[in-house]
Amino acid sequence: xxxxxxxxxxxxxxxxxxxxxxxxxxxxxxxxxxxxxxxxxxxxxxxxxxxxxxxxxxxxxxxxxxxxxxxxxxxxxxxxxxxxxxxxxxxxxxxxxxxxxxxxxxxxxxxxxxxxxxxxxxxxxxxxxxxxxxxxxxxxxxxxxxxxxxxxxxxxxxxxxxxxxxxxxxxxxxxxxxxxxxxxxxxxxxxxxxxxxxxxxxxxxxxxxxxxxxxxxxxxxxxxxxxxxxxxxxxxxxxxxxxxxxxxxxxxxxxxxxxxxxxxxxxxxxxxxxxxxxxxxxxxxxxxxxxxxxxxxxxxxxxxxxxxxxxxxxxxxxxxxxxxxxxxxxxxxxxxxxxxxxxxxxxxxxxxxxxxxxxxxxxxxxxxxxxxxxxxxxxxxxxxxxxxxxxxxxxxxxxxxxxxxxxxxxxxxxxxxxxxxxxxxxxxxxx
Length: 431
Ligand code: SPV
Ligand code: MG
Description:
By secondary structure, the protein is of the alpha/beta class. The chain is built from 17 helices and 17 strands. Sulfopyruvate binds at residues 192-194, 204, 231, 267-269, 364, 366, 387-388.
């Protein structure tokens, strides 16, 4: 009896999957691989069912003999274990980033005389609708809100990119790269006060009001499914912040990060070059406690951001504040620095982790940008936020284009740097 292997990464079984199983069954004993949660989220899907629920779902399909967990996106683990005679897959993996996976699998199986079988992908209205509905479900507040906590549990480090509009949201949602045969993508979005303010031509001093900040979130949410971490600045008065928390939860935002400053807040990357005041431990702890009391769901996270290193108050102060904020109910700690050398961030993480193994740590490596996600993760960091890079990438490109059109009195000279007209008018998918 031949072994036929196929890997599934779906939460819903439709006729396309049944067709694959039928085709596989004609060739021998069918083993289905359930792509593990960890691998699935690096791929292009986020599960709405748990790994165990997916396994049970696949086991219930007629013709399936066995379900195994596939940990490796490139199939190495299962192919080594099972040596299947056939690996069956929809022919959609012949194109796009998945093509690299197909080539890798083909090389593995042909080495021992196995074969890859591409089954024509089932494209019809029902399948299209099911795919769309599954995706849309992830955009609903109850799914989106809890997704950040799920990601923290599922992945060594949650990778977050700044978004300040529908378009930048789409870039974070859809950008997938293939590196050494593996696919990668961002896990979540950061609605930065700096970039949201800058996009509106305003300084980052809590001048853009909450209604306008919520409008930005809404624009992003309308076209994406990934979870959102909101930069709540200082949170304002505790009496006001409790209302902000309720609104963010209702919208489906996953977390708010508030920083322990008070009065006129300026951007942290100014450090001590401008006048900024840190709140006392008691004042800021009271704000966290009030917000945790106001919170209605278990999913939402209130993350305390410590400005002691930014304001040169020392490591001991930063660590004392971290312990106090966790005791006040904070669901995570963000530690910030504007030094180029990551040493003080790593020292904080190591010392914090020596006393607290669990509370998630968030970092924003804008200045200390030589350190990799893997190195940060090795020091106990759970969330890495790229806080402003999309804005900083777009601004010089736009400025140079404006200057050159002025310089040449026409647009021809800039044309080869621009997105082709055909692509800009088809960039946004229609429903
Ligand atoms: C932001 O992105 O608005 C932040 C991070 O708060 S930083 O600009 O580094 O202060
Ligand atoms: Mg900010």
